[in-house]
Fold this sequence. Notes:
Layout: E1 3-7, H1 12-23, E2 27-32, E3 50-53, H2 59-66, E4 71-74, H3 81-86, H4 88-108, E5 113-119, H5 142-161, E6 164-170, E7 173-174, H6 187-196, E8 202-204, E9 210-211, E10 214-215, H7 216-228, H8 231-234, E11 237-241, E12 247-248, H9 249-260, E13 267-269, H10 284-290, H11 298-311
Helix pairs in contact: 1-7, 2-4, 4-5, 6-9, 6-11, 9-11
Residues 79-81, 119-121, 170-172, 186-187, 190, 202-205, 209, 211, 249, 272, 275-276, 279 line the site of uridine-diphosphate-N-acetylgalactosamine.
InterPro entries: Epimerase_deHydtase, Lipid_A_modif_metabolic_enz, NAD(P)-bd_dom_sf
Organism: Candidatus Sulfotelmatobacter kueseliae
Domain NAD-dependent epimerase/dehydratase: 5-242
Amino acid sequence: MACYLITGIAGFIGSSLARALLSCGEQVRGVDNFSTGKRENIVEILDRIDFREADILDLDAMHNSCAGVDYVLHQAAIPSVPKSVLDPLGSNRANVDGTVNVLLAARDAKVKRVVYAASSSAYGDTPTLPKHEAMNPDPISPYAVAKLASEHYMVSFYRCYQLETVSLRYFNIFGPRQDPSSPYSGVLAKFSTAMLRGEQPTILGDGEQSRDFTFIDNAVAANLLACKAPAAQAAGQVFNVATGRRVTLHETFKSLQGITGYSGTPKYGPERDGDIKHSLADISKAAAGLGYKPTVEFEEGLRLTVEWYRKRTSDL
Ligand code: UD2
């Protein structure tokens, strides 16, 4: 049994990782400051995890949290492009300074490996598709810059201190427990819940933008593989975590009409500042280096997600 520290454990991805690790019989410790995470995401597992309410900006708390840990899964972040455009300093603090704290604490505690939640936003709006890891990054939003800076810190800590680090560039992860209620929530959480309530979702832009939407179980599997992959293949490396297929918002809206039964039309609003037009991953590096293979395709993931929200529509 290994001990895992999950930063951002009360978030959508952090709490999903915790559940998966518990079901494998692993020991789970977690930190969260509830800035975007929610207590309800971990309430059912609180008696089985070592939870500490703490901010990753608190270096002492990070040192305490890393003591005796084998693997750190660093998910804590302020994950939003538009929020970072409004508050670049706040984004930088959480997404860069916070990461450096986690790395320092992990280095000092001699953890075996740190796996980091990087972002596909690092690629920016370069026209080449699919995006592969050897391409030059070209971030647009402050969020994308911060996520890329933290990736560089991951590599730096491997080179300077031999702390094994792996960055996973998540491509629009979605699924149960993703918060639909904030103005900065992911589009699938917002669309699914709006359409279940019979409300019009808002498409920002022309609806022809596309994403490699990736169901949560695939991201969870990638993290577990990234902990165990041989260092020669994984340490100091960056990997795309995606499905290798993209869908437009219009296509997504149509799929959701079928699943939710919503028969109305969408509204349209202005394109967001810092938005990316098309995003699609080449996942061959993760396949070769980590043994990663997506197991849940987009439509199936969408069905599972809507089912989960449907059971909770009364609370939405
Ligand atoms: C970026 C990253 C993603 C992750 C995420 C964290 C890219 C390609 N992806 O996601 O990997 O790091 O940031 O937040 O950079 N939209 C609407 N209506 C809405 C909400 C959104 O039309 O109500 C549009 C939005 O303008 C965008 C698309 O939906 O074109 C996806 O938006 P999102 O906020 O779900 O995710 P995105 O792509 O900014």
